[in-house]
Design goal:
The protein is an alpha/beta fold and 380 residues long. Helix content is 27%, strand content 28%. Helix 1 packs antiparallel against helix 2 and helix 6 runs parallel beside helix 7.
Length: 380
């Protein structure tokens, strides 16, 4: 493959040769022949590519916005001779990241650490490793892809905040799911006795009927989920308001999960993700954060309709930009009297006039201001 310099040299060779023949000027023909000979002489340099095995490993499959991330490229030389240094190597994919590959010993290997950009949230494909060979005059190049790919998830920036308030469970005894942690007061089921368990949990009547020892399994009932709706509209936000809104949602999800609350996130664009309680009672919000990695603004969708579809008053929080009086009225109707619903607005304007039928209205200008303001409100 010709480089830009190679294309110019080949074109010069053709032009000078044609002009020399047309004008019967042998010097031009000679100059054209020299240019053509230079291009032909570069071919042996690209006759073969290095015999490499390349492995790509990410230091972590996910990282928070702005935190360092690295890829480790392991290059193994399968040839019986030392490989030359290669100055043009890149990790292809969504980002092309150039780096230099030093010489590798015969049948040896070398690890190269490459810093990955994390200045924008998203899910980025890293790899394969693209090795480019050129001749000394950089007239021709030959490239080949080695190794596999990896995906780096850059999570939104998160800050430490208190969890939102939730409505009590409709079931007085709670919802005992399959992964509810043991040791509470809610009876879930009878199960066979396991040696070492407390004999006080044995249910003697059931044991007599079953012919084996049966124990009562008590669990901690599941807490009601945090349902958070993110407005992905274009008009409500100015500047970096949308990025701050995504960070607010991510921070609230992590805060809820740390307190053992299941989490569900919905966007006005129709996307949704949930994090339920897993084995041991922990709530894994990785799926929710992956959704927030790739969420983008869209003019399609309606915030009030999304809130209404999310069971209205069951919505725990709404994160949006500037609300008009009409938007405020639409949310109030969709929430159907959500007394504990918190609406976070990324704006520097005060609350619009009009009656609202929900809980707190929190206007802030950034995610840091939200953390400072909301933590004070939550402790009050």
């Amino acid at each position: 493959m010709l480089t830009r310099t190679g294309v110019m040299l080949a074109a010069s060779a053709a032009l000078w040769t044609a002009l020399g023949i047309a004008t019967k000027y042998p010097e031009l023909v000679s100059a054209g022949a020299v240019c053509a000979l230079m291009v032909v002489a570069a071919l042996p340099w690209l006759r073969r590519l290095p015999h490499f095995d390349v492995e790509l490993r990410l230091s972590a499959p996910y990282v928070m916005l702005g935190n360092p991330a690295q890829a480790v490229v392991t290059v193994r030389n399968r040839a019986g001779r030392r490989s030359p240094s290669i100055g043009t190597v890149a990790l292809a994919g969504d980002h092309e990241i150039p780096f230099a590959l030093p010489s590798v010993d015969p049948l040896g290997s070398r690890d190269i650490s490459v810093s990955l950009p994390t200045d924008r949230r998203g899910a980025y494909v890293i790899g394969p490793t693209r090795i480019v060979r050129t001749d000394p005059l950089r007239l021709l190049l030959r490239q080949a892809d080695y190794g596999g790919r990896g995906v780096l998830h850059v999570y939104p920036r998160m800050v430490a905040v208190s969890a939102l308030a939730t409505l009590p469970s409709d079931d007085e005894d709670g919802d005992a799911s399959a992964f509810a942690p043991r040791g509470g007061v809610t009876f879930k089921e009878l199960r066979p006795y396991v040696p070492g368990e407390d004999w006080r949990l044995i249910h003697w009547k059931s044991s007599a009927r079953q012919g084996e020892l049966m124990v009562r399994q008590n669990v901690v009932f599941d807490r009601p989920p945090h349902v958070i709706v993110l407005d992905v509209g274009v008009e409500p936000y100015a500047g970096d308001g949308f990025e701050d809104a995504v960070s607010v949602v991510a921070s609230l999800c992590v805060a809820a999960a740390r307190q053992g609350f299941p989490v569900e996130v919905r966007t006005s664009g129709g996307h949704r993700a949930a994090a339920a309680r897993g084995r041991g009672g922990a709530v894994d919000v990785a799926g929710v954060l992956r959704l927030l990695c790739g969420v983008r603004q869209s003019s399609a969708g309606d915030l009030s309709a999304t809130v209404a579809a999310a069971r209205g008053a069951a919505v725990t929080g709404i994160v949006t930009g500037q609300l008009s009086a009409r938007d405020l009225h639409g949310l109030s109707m969709a929430l159907k009297g959500g007394r504990l619903t918190t609406v976070v607005c990324l704006t520097d304007l005060p609350e619009p006039s009009g009656k609202r039928l929900f809980g707190a209205y929190v206007p802030v200008r950034s995610v840091d201001e939200f953390a400072a303001h909301w933590n004070v409100l939550a402790r009050a």
